[in-house]
Amino acid sequence: MGFFDNDNLHTPTADDRVDGKQKVTGTAKFAAEYVIENLVYGVLVGSTIAKGTIQSIDVKEAKNAPGVIDIITHENTIALEKFSDEKKAKEAQLGLRIFYSNEIFSNGQPVALVVAGHLEQAQYAAGLVKITYSKAAHVTNFTAAVEKEKTTKYEEDKTRGDANAWKNGTIKIEQEYAQPVEVHSTIEMHASIAVWEGDDKLTVYDKNHAVKDVQGTIANAFNLKKENVKIQAEFIGGGFGSGLRVWPHTFAAIIAAKKLGRPVKVTITRPQAFTMVGYRPQAWQRVAMGAAADGTITGAVHEAITNTSAYEAFGENSTGITRTLYNFTNLQTKYKTLSLNLATPIWMRAPGEATGSFALESAMDELAHALKMDPVALRLKNYAEKDIDSGLPWSSNFLKECYQTAATKFGWEKRKQEPRSTKNGDWWVGYGMGVGTWGAWRLKASARGKLDSNGNLLLQSATSDMGPGTATAMVAIANNVLGIAKEKIKFQLGNSTLPDAPAQGGSFTLASVGSAVNDVCVAIAKKLFTIATETETSFKEVKFEDVIFKDENLSLKNNPSVIISYTQLLRNKNVTEIDITQASESGDESKKYSFNSYAVHFAEVHVHAYTGVVRVKRFVSCVDAGKIVSEKTAASQIKGAVVWGIGHALMEEQQIDHRYGRIIANDFAGYHIPVNADVPEIDVTFVNKPDPYLNAMGSKGLGEVGLIGSAAAIANAVFNATGKRIRQLPITPDKLI
Ligand code: MOS
After folding, report:
1. Is the N or the C terminus of the chain less surrounded, counting Cβ atoms within 10 Å?
2. Is the CB of residue 467 below 6 angstroms from any atom belonging to ligand 1?
3. Which of 185, 208, 244 to mutate to test the pocket of ligand 1 (most atoms within 8 A of CB)?
4. pTM surpassing 0.90?
5. d(CA 369, CA 492)
6. Is the shortest distance between the CB of 706 and ligand 1 below 6 Å?
7. Are 194 and 210 in contact (CB under 8 A)?
8. What percent of the chain has pLDDT over 90?
């Protein structure tokens, strides 16, 4: 008997992840783990300069190394129209045109792929490729570049009311906030195995959480029919946004596989994960606010600048949160990007809002302090009764309930308004809070449901599960609609041949794909009901509203003894299955309501008086995300998000050596993320009240909202503990002593 066969070790509960056992026993297959015949291995070589051109590449020694099959560079790559034409490449959103130019835009940029029969041979030979460069002056110093940039025109400048109204406040604050590059740091390394199944047919086993988008990009890039490109990404070891597009290593694998006529696998290394698959851009922000003595905010300004690469535009909605969270009738938000010799950033968990909320929620705390007002009271005073940006009413908004529940649980009333007033031994003690909001979207999605003659239900959709427990939640939805035991329901995802679904991102999977699953299950229920009315006399005159679907039986609401099993109904009709595929999308609700999720966070920190070490001691979050479908996975999402908040506030920082424009911290010794010892018990509560308009479940997304406002809660607690306001993340000990 195997270790995990012993159920005494862990008795699964109905709430457990449906794929938990596969993941912990190693039977879940991740992209790099597919066993492919005739496979060879590619290792990428990165540029050692940050800007300039490649002058020469000497591959002689590398080519003669054991096992080396080929070394692909811009000198010998295959002819591809979309890659060789810069304009077409831009239109196709290929990002870096790998192997199609000798230009260098960032240090670490992949410039060669060494392919060998074994991984170790390719790794060894990669070190033998000799490249000479012609260097040009690079720009990687964001802090220096932003000084000039903030004085020039913004790409986006939105004003409502009077942009200068903040200056009329009795109490005013105006501050700047800074944030370094942060990196997704997924457990699983990005990997692609490219298998050409003929001249015009391609399968890619790939780490991404956007199978349909990746299919579209690759089909377009290689001039293939979409249906001839198959993307398999069933299991994902963390994504957080880093798997939302096709990166150069995937193109490299496909190009190499084409050139060599055999399958090629390219797995990036941990150091490469810091330069080749995106990151959260650096940010500079300025927030100005003015308030009357009673705390009514008269006006606010929020500007932000983030960085992009030198070859591609990438921006995020850093100031968006300030447009909706409070009743700012007079508001100006400004945003733009500046380009640096770094690789292109990408969305990273709660993109925009995580960054924006650090500035906004720190500034709210600064204003409360200046007003000598309780930070929660200040927020309640400026509560937005509707979405004043769109003018629409909230579809549902239990933010006030979140404040109250979390404050009570936390014991906020014990907070001392005066900073640096509580000491416990050598540790200063502080309480802080912060708020987050995130749009609750529902996108078009489809799902297939197949009920077989044994009563098993198979569900399929081309969505992904980068970790939140998507399959688990979908099974819960189906179980709720059809009353089929969870063990008899299987949800398949992560393959481009399945029914259309959006990428997993933006916290919209549950509300979107969940709606499709709900609808297809309702369609199956209706089909079962129709069969019952046709084949069972006791159901003949019955209406759909009068039956219940429970324990794999259809029965009458008012007479439960009139009951028939689903399998019997299939036999009655002489069919072996019910098989329905259905698309699901919202109506015009979004024209009538503003849909959003909310999170309120409270943190207690202890700051060591002599070393400046910050320990997060307690964390309490209350979240309004409508009706919660899967309590355990939902709570895990919030806990994970808060761990991110701890990293964001206290640890994460990509340092760059500007002499070479090179990323310094390319492992977890240099780039710090929270470990268990850094994380206290995280107390999560859900309001758990359905949103009446978004979808049948009443559920809003919650993967991202838990991160928003969490870093500010910690920064605000640090201020309360020490009286030191740190506006430059991360809050490391050197900034506190
Ligand atoms: Mo999220 S950054 O939209 O995956």
Report:
1. N
2. no
3. 244
4. yes
5. 52
6. no
7. no
8. 98
